[in-house]
Amino acid sequence: MSASTLFDVPGLVRLASQVLAAHGVPEADALLTARSLVQADQRGIYSHGLLRLPLYAEALRLGGINAAPSMTWTRDTGSVAALDADAALGQVAMQAAVDHVLERGAAHGIAAVAVSNSSHYGAGAFWSDQLAAAGFLTVLTSTTGPVVAPHGGIEKVLGTNPLTLGAPSAGEWPLTADLATSSGAYGKVIAARNEGTQLPEGWAVDSEGRPTTDPVAAAEGSMIPFGGHKGSAVAVLLEAFAASLTDATYAFETVDIWSNPASRMNNGHLLIGLDTAAFGGREHTQTRVQTLQERVRGSGPGGRPVLAPGDPERLREQEHAATVSLPTSTADQLAELAARLGLDPIQPVPTSAATSSERTQR
Fold it and tell me: Composition bias, kind Polar residues: at what positions (predicted)?
């Protein structure tokens, strides 16, 4: 991250909630969404944090996102359900899906919810964490707007098609993998464009299919899947999983709100939860998962520690429990948004209040 500004976490949650409420979002939904965005920033996932708040606000203003949706369960057979989210904020749709999986999974041992007519739901671990806390294994994926070319192609056929896997642990936090199946999150392309920085090599091609590190050229061209043909295969299958069970649109059928905030994207999500109590028991699974976590952490050369999946984000969140640094471009956008809505801007925390780790990152 380049130049940044330090803010207190409660103030950011309050401002984000107020911005959403000013666009007609009910208080509880606004708070939920704000917490999702701010936690992403605390964990260093700036592509899914408050960078997106101005986009959400504009989509709410223009109708691409429905502030007060009438969500409908179009199918409910016990352990399997389908939810039409009525163009809701993705966080609102996902909380309904999580609550449903928790209830039905406890009754049946496994539950799945396919969501259609939704939008961006933020970082996937925000949802898998809730399920892990209740002893559930989680599989979660989603469609997005069209930004990724399949391996060997140059057309934007796929989305970033995130995959979140979560397993409860007897340790301090769950074992979690939360990743885009593109080489990087599209929000990081937007962040690089806003910051005037370059992308890592191997992330994107321009409109002619030539490798590029220029975020502007990447936005006009395509991102590419991680892992060559294998990653591309995973991305294609996740697209099918997220959209084919309902009337959700594939990425290549979608107009992204990044391009047109008035677009109702009709994103599809698929959430699957397995209640470990129905198998070997929650305590058994949590202990076994912790064993794997610790074995991974202890596998470094010369006794040097290795980070297990999910560790980097959790450690950063601990360091930023009270304050978090935002890219200056994001801070400026938040200030402009607050001024436009007549809200009190959040004041930066003096640099002297930053922790040593925060000052280093700044």
Answer: 349-362
